[in-house]
């Protein structure tokens, strides 16, 4: 079944560690996005990509990087995790030819101790 | 940047009641979507509705682009409707969405 997958689902790590959050989709969507959401709050755009080798920063992109080497894969990397990075990270995709509706993954809940 | 305001921020209903959620936006948009986030955090796309009216079962949505607002109607609410409803917009159809703060709906039996 075509879907969008995020791993890990939960992650607890120590301050200063480098981490990569994985996001993959099997729907053939050309556009992918990363959002950050604190509990009960709005979603903030971190990074987005409109195609392979195309990435842009959102409003809240500091201290993280992304890559888009393959259409289906859009990983998010934190070079040095801090307690302020504790949050939920949501990946989404959409298709130019499919009506632009977003599909979200289940999210990664990150805790930095 | 574009501003998205949702109202009311919180809504408490008895099962079977109807409700209307509102989304106001500050600029002309070519992409507007409604989402439901369930209590486990999963976001589900309800409607892609930059203009006009759509219906899906007990849910319907209307966007009046010229007046910069959209409405989400929930009829005969059920406990499974509980969660947070987000409105999100973009100036152009294929660009990244900006989200409002959401309306938290609680439906009790």
Assembly form of the protein: heterodimer
Q: Give the H and E element order of chain A.
A: EEEEEEEEEEE
Biggest interface and its residues per chain? A-B, 28 and 23 residues
Report Rg of chain B: 13 Å
Look at the helices and sheets of chain B and give the structural class: mainly beta
| Strands of chain A, total number | 11
Radius of gyration of chain A: 13 Å
Show unreliable segments of chain A: none
Describe it.
- The complex is a heterodimer of chains A (113) and B (109).
- Chain A has 113 residues and is mostly beta strands.
- Chain A is built from no helices and 11 strands.
- In chain A, the strands form 2 sheets. In chain A, strands 2, 4, 5, 6, 9, 10 and 11 form a 7-stranded mixed sheet that branches.
- The termini of chain A are far apart.
- With 109 residues, chain B is mostly beta strands.
- In chain B, 0% of the residues lie in helices and 57% in strands.
- Chain B is built from no helices and 11 strands.
- Chain B has strands spanning 4-7, 10-14, 19-25, 31-37, 43-48, 52-56, 59-64, 69-74, 83-90, 98-99, 103-108.
- In chain B, strands 2, 4, 5, 9, 10 and 11 form a 6-stranded mixed sheet that branches. Chain B has a 5-stranded antiparallel sheet with strand order 1-3-8-7-6, with no helix packed on it.
- The radius of gyration of chain B is 13 Å and the shape is globular.
- Chain B starts with a strand and ends with a strand.
- The chains are: A mainly beta (113), B mainly beta (109).
- The interface between A and B is medium-sized, with 28 and 23 residues.
């Amino acid at each position: 079944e075509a879907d969008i997958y995020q791993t890990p689902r939960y992650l607890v790590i120590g301050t200063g560690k480098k981490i990569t959050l994985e996001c993959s989709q099997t729907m053939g969507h050309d556009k992918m996005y990363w959002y950050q959401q604190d509990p009960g709050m709005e979603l903030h755009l971190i990074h987005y990509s409109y195609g392979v080798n195309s990435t842009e920063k959102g409003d809240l992109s500091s201290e993280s990087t992304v890559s888009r080497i393959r259409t289906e894969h859009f990983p998010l990397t934190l070079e040095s995790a801090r307690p302020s990075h504790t949050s939920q990270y949501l990946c989404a995709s959409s298709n130019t030819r499919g009506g632009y509706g977003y599909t979200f993954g289940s999210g990664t809940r990150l805790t930095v101790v | 940047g574009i501003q998205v305001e949702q109202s009311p921020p919180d809504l408490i209903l008895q099962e079977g009641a109807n409700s209307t959620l509102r989304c106001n936006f500050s600029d002309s948009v070519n992409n507007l979507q409604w989402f439901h986030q369930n209590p486990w955090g999963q976001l589900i796309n309800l409607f892609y509705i930059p203009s006009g009216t759509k219906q899906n079962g007990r849910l319907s949505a209307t966007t009046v682009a010229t007046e910069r607002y959209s409405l989400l109607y929930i009829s005969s609410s059920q406990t499974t409707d509980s969660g947070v409803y987000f409105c999100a917009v973009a100036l152009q159809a294929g660009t990244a969405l900006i989200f409002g703060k959401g309306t938290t709906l609680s439906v009790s039996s």
